[in-house]
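[Protein data]
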Amino acid sequence: MLRTKTDVTYEGRKAVIAPMDIPVECTFDELIDMIYSRTSIDKRRFKLLLNCKYPLRSGNRFQPFPILDDSSVRRMLNMVNTTSIEEIELFIEVVRVNAQLNQSVGGHADLFVCNNYNVAQYEYGCGPSCGAVPEIGPNGDDEGLADEEADYEVDEDVDDECNEDANVEVEEHVSSFQNFNQLLENEQGIYVSAQAPSCDVSNHPDDETLDDSPPVNYHMPPTPHFEHVENLDNAVASCWTPWVRHTTGYSSGEFVIGQVFNSKSDLQNAAKIYSIKAHQEFIVVASSKKLLVLRCKKAEECHCPWKLHAMVVKDTSLFVINKYTGPHTCVNPCLNRDHHQLDANLVATHMKALLKAQFTLTTAAIQASVMEKWGYQISYKKALDGKHKAIRQVFGDFSQSYTELPRLFLAIEQSNPGCVVVWKTCEINMLNTEVFQRVFWSFKPSIEGFEHCRPIMSVDGTHLYGKYKGKLLIAMGCDGNNQLFPLAFAITEGENTDSWGWFLACIRNRVSQRTGICVISDRHPGIMAAMSDPHLGWAAPSAYHRICMRHLASNFMTRFKDKILKNLVCRAALATTKRKFNKHMSTIGRINSEALEWLEAIPSQLWALSHDGG
């Protein structure tokens, strides 16, 4: 591959570029047969080695991924759904059946695996091609520009020629992974060791001495036995450093002309990280959908020449650096605790993966993570803003999520016949506009199954964390094996008398009319009022209210902060006889008379098993 200032083209021995449509359910054997059929290669004499170009999660880098079985085929085809890649680049090497891996007899064939049959030819990495696509024969001879429908044929005399020139072939051809790495290095950048003594670290190499430059020390190519590629980034990024050309070296992390980024945001993040690590700052001179120009913040004060100019590649979202002057020549006399380029957007990009795994990550933990990674102590407000942006990127916008609620529950009702959904909205002074307040739902299997459960129902509420807060109210049953049985749910503005009364009324009217149900809850005033309201249908003898022992013990511990007394309260609540209950209560009174008075203020039949009355 030859990278110019504004484009990426292929130079040298020509390759066959052929579009193919592969079904999602395609197996490895089916894929091999399709390629044999498409290229007219004799499968009795030649075997195929397949590698696809697999994108890494971080940066504009790629990793060769061998296609060895059905699992790796599925992984390759799934790239279209999990990444922004529209065409999968599959590299095929033709190897003689009896030859060793490093004795390949054909060049790579670059196939684009597409999603539809209306496929246009592409030049490698450059978008739609306006001209014919060059081809290469398996013997490597230049055949000029070929027609799109030219067949890929193998000369029957190749076997004899290869036997006569076997030694020449061994020198001219390398292993499949070396060939594949060569293509990737030419397009995405040379992978070299930053500590290599022969690495040219000058930012402006002399073009006249390029041919005489010392050889570049490469890392060994990665092992082809990648069974799982979930941790591919960690496996490669730790020891591989991306380079654009071996002649420009930048072991200090400098940008180079011709460097390509997937998007403008990727380029901006790279520039920010560069400035943070260099303890320098830049300002934006010009910024649009097609242009980004940056220069040093001290350009006028210290005459620093650092400047970066990048433009979008036509008909793509890629950004390429076409002008660059660096590194910085200015000196930062003192280091601030914070950095201007370390903004909330970069914090969001850094914390996105962590917040996806742990939504409740604290702002202080984000500050500590940024400090550990970049050495700057960002403000609490910046960390919180970055957290909110990362949450929106991972989980979506809060207001948009609430806007989608009607569509969500409509889909639930359509896909679950018999599902109960009850809405409550607030009217405002806008035509045909209502504001969401509450929603209740229960699934038909839960409604029917509750009739066969024990006559026990537990209700509780939990906080909703987000921009609009609110509460999630839950009702659970208990089956014959004492396992929890989900019954009904509601999203409300909070826990109060009105919301709890509305929730319990929905259960009584739309879910179950069973009588004699024991309702277990905490001592929230809203629940207590709703259970005693005769109009809601939960007063005795239709239902009986009992207090949850765990909530009672937690409230007791909050008030008196004594673990011994807390254990005695639990024993008193679980006592099956009044004699044992009175014994534990007497012990509590001897230790703390105020604790005894606090318990006696709560009717014993509401929380003590011995006074339940069956």
